[in-house]
């Protein structure tokens, strides 16, 4: 996956229940993940060894939010729109001048593979700039049975 692996694309139209977190530091992520897990349980997506779609959403949420907190500028806002056709994950930060950039030629032991991972988990992904904020987004299916690989 090269430079075009995380394409500049507008956010798709997402309709559904909106869940939002305002994040200032990496230390807030465990609590945010726990709240996301509880909300998923509450809308009928409990932990299921046969269908890991909810766990994939939590992983993508963690990867995009931690990237924004590490490499972007605060505040970071993570939003999940829980729609009938899937989940739309959007993470914004105040660094509109820096595009999301997957690591190239890095030893996997050194990290930096989060964007690759989210791209593989999603059916669509991209980023855009709006009102001084960079938004990095991914659409994830609500069932692993319905998943088709994302197009780069």
UniProtKB/TrEMBL annotation:
InterPro entries reported for this sequence: Anti-sigma-factor_SerPK, HATPase_C_sf, HATPase_dom
Residue ranges constituting the Histidine kinase/HSP90-like ATPase domain according to the UniProt record: 28-138
GO terms assigned for molecular function: protein serine/threonine kinase activity
Record's keyword terms, sorted: Kinase, Serine/threonine-protein kinase, Transferase
Pfam families for this protein: HATPase_c_2
Organism domain of life: Bacteria
Protein name: Histidine kinase/HSP90-like ATPase domain-containing protein
Protein species of origin: Geodermatophilus africanus
